[in-house]
Amino acid sequence: MIEPHEAPRRAREIRKLVAVNDVPAAVNNLLDFIYDFSSGEDVDEVTVLSMRLHNLNDDQRKRVVERQAANDERARLMLDMLGLMRQVEDKLLQQVGHG
């Protein structure tokens, strides 16, 4: 069982990966973070966000989407992912505070 007190450290690591644009590692770590600390709708949401990011990368490789448009959409997706992580962090803080 993953301890809730580990969440802030792992969240910091994910944010650092996003900051240095290591998107693949950030997404993989975020998927693990959500699977470990949440369930249900959050897992579905991060799964779909990850799928959208992979589709965007495929489209960029196939030159279906221009580079700047892909970068803009990638930034929006990463912001959505970080927002989801923040929601999970907040839920954990509430549980620990009431636990």
The portion of residues forming beta strands comes to under 5%
Number of helices: 4
Instruction: Detail the poorly predicted runs.
Output: none
The chain-level structural class is mainly alpha
Give the integer mean of the pLDDT values.
Answer: 92
| First-residue to last-residue Cα separation | 16 Å
Shape: elongated
Helix content: over 70%
Helices and strands, in order, run as HHHH
Radius of gyration: 15 Å
Largest sheet: none
The beta-strand count equals 0
What order do the helices and strands come in, and which of them pair?
Elements: H1 7-19, H2 23-37, H3 41-61, H4 67-98
Helix pairs in contact: 1-2, 1-4, 2-3, 2-4, 3-4
Question: How would you portray this structure in words?
Answer:
This protein is mainly alpha-helical and 99 residues long. The protein contains four helices and no strands. Helix 1 runs antiparallel to helix 4, helix 2 runs antiparallel to helix 3 (41-61) and helix 3 (41-61) runs antiparallel to helix 4 (67-98). The longest helix has 32 residues, at 67-98. The mean pLDDT is 92.
